[in-house]
Amino acid sequence: MLTIETLQLLLAGFATAFSLENLLMAFLGALIGTFVGVLPGLGPTSAIAILLPVTTVLEPTQGMIMLAGIYYGAMYGGSTTAILLNIPGELSSVPTCLDGYPLARLGKGGPALGISAIASFVAGVVGVIGLVFFAPLLADQALKFGPPEYFALMLLALTLMVSLSGGSLLKSFLMGAFGYALSLVGLGPSSGMPRFDYGFSSLVGGLDMISIIIGLFAITEVLKGIAEKRRATVVGKPGSVYPQKADMKKSAAPMLRGGLVGFFLGLLPGCSAAITAFLAYDLEKKVSRQPEKFGHGAIEGVAAPEAANNATSSAGFIPLFSLGIPSSPPLAVLLAGLMIYGLTPGPVLFAQHADFVWTVIASMFIGNMMLLVLNLPMVWLWVKLTRVSFGIMAPVILLLCTIGAYSVRNSMFDVWIAFLFGGLGYLFVKYKWPVVPLILCFILGPLLEESFIQTMAMGSGSLGFVLSRPLSLAILLAAVVLLIVSLLLNRRTRQRLHEEQKKGVDVA
Amino acid sequence: MKRPHNRADWIGALICMVIGVMISLEAYRLQAYAQYMFAGDHTLPAILGFFFVMLGGVLLVQSYPGKAQAAPPRQTFAPGYEGTRVLYAWLSLLLYAWLIGVLGYLLATALASVVFFMLIGSYRWYVAVFYSLLLTGAMYTVFVLWLQLPFPGGDLW
């Protein structure tokens, strides 16, 4: 629980976060994130993927503060397009569409956006408070982690495949295997011999994760936009963004319930924001005295899933920081960001880089506040941005992707890789092969291999050694439980999504 | 001969099995450098190779219709109008990457962005040239002049 030491670290984090540069980074992150998230069709994952290389010029703390701001901002930006355009940037924004878009059609898009911003803020703060309390608990186990525990942790991360599978579990596993295979390209950790280079010297250095991420998310998104003939149209005028007293009264309890559902389920590594947002929406519908209003413009139907969505986003930082497990696609890209800064998330991150982690946590409070300050008065600007033609945005995004891929290692090889994976990503999306397991396994691949080889060496060639250590055994048992929970929750979410797709909600 | 129910999955499954074989061959090559039989640079590739072949095989079987399933609708891979535009856009990207090496960043970006504006935005050529000049100028100023990104100058010059 919260100790004096934790409190001191948090206060020190606040002191650092309140420096002018860090405040500026949080502000810029929230601003840019909202800006990119608002652009039609670009969800938080693509937003972070495009902007990740931009942050690499900063020092780690500032870069991470900016990335967290981009994440929160893009999440909120995604809700704006969900409410005004009926285009959810991510699966987790689908429940927001259900009542947000009907509200916009009724000329109440403004209050819906306002409630969405307030719900995101309230839940974001709930999530960050939870982060302060729960993260140290996991971090305390840091010193007990050896290769077998890391190996068990990597197996636990594999359970994420279920929640990230999208449709077919088989394809999800194949894509995960493809991600692992890509991570093997380059020098072998044990012998130092080049692997999978097939005589190309450029492959000896391995594949860069940023160029793959840019290709699979950002370039693919542009190609998808071309295929869909994407245009941007907003329904009517959104009206005042400041919700009325009655709206606030109706939304207060759903916000809190949604926030709690989102946070506590978000602690489970396999539980994505899409799952919690749907659960929160269904919960509100069940407890409501007028369930028939849901789907036709109930403000509670915006408040609850938005709160759940945001609380899960904050809670997702707990398994990310303390276990190195990303529970959602944007967090998988954020994990890549952490690794670029040379910070390996996991149990020792709190022990070795406590100042960094607590500064980022403190800046999340500030980032959430900024998001509220930024979004309520500036909704008119975001509404205008949704009208930017895709024909203008797409070439800009493509050129930024080129620079992003090139700038990491100043290598044209990475640009080629980004473009190649852009084409592959389009085919994957078109034929429904989930992309996120590939990224997750590409990121976790080196850690899995290292811990596997070390564990095998420690156990004299036997993996049974993992079962003989209490902590690794506990992690393995947790993996089994999570796998079952994820399978059940995922099946339920898929059914709900299918129901909504039948009713005409289109997921971007 | 039975036609696959889902041709895209059938092709995907075959590709996965080929990848599995390639990875297994690499694992076999790497085994010569390993100190231990079950722990080394070859172990994970060997496991992955096995997974690819096995799961690819399962997907291959799944891509055929079951007894209870109706005759599969014929799937076509011929791209429509939008599919052709996607293909052109992607090929333009590859051409852009090649042109950067030949003409240098500035000229290649100017040319490529004209193509992108015309292809994606369907703008007339003079509007596309105008947007392209604005965009290339902004990119060059920020990333090359200001942030000093060392882009290739081009082999031609």
From TrEMBL, chain A:
What domain of life does the UniProt record list for this protein's source? Bacteria
- For whether the record's keyword set contains Membrane, the answer is yes
Q: What is this protein called?
A: Tripartite tricarboxylate transporter permease
Under the heading Pfam families, the entry gives: TctA
Enumerate the UniProt keywords alphabetically.
Membrane, Transmembrane, Transmembrane helix
Q: Which residues form the DUF112 domain?
A: 23-440
Task: Tell me if Transmembrane is a UniProt keyword of this record.
Answer: yes
Q: Which organism is it from?
A: Brevibacillus gelatini
> Which residue ranges run through the membrane?
27-52, 64-85, 112-138, 150-178, 198-223, 258-281, 331-350, 357-382, 388-406, 413-429, 471-489
From TrEMBL, chain B:
Keyword flag Membrane: yes
Give the DUF1468 domain ranges: 11-152
**Cytoplasm is among the record's keywords:** no
- Source organism, top-level taxon: Bacteria
Transmembrane annotation, as ranges:
7-25, 45-65, 86-119, 125-147
* Keywords, ordered alphabetically: Membrane, Transmembrane, Transmembrane helix
Name of the featured protein: Tripartite tricarboxylate transporter TctB family protein
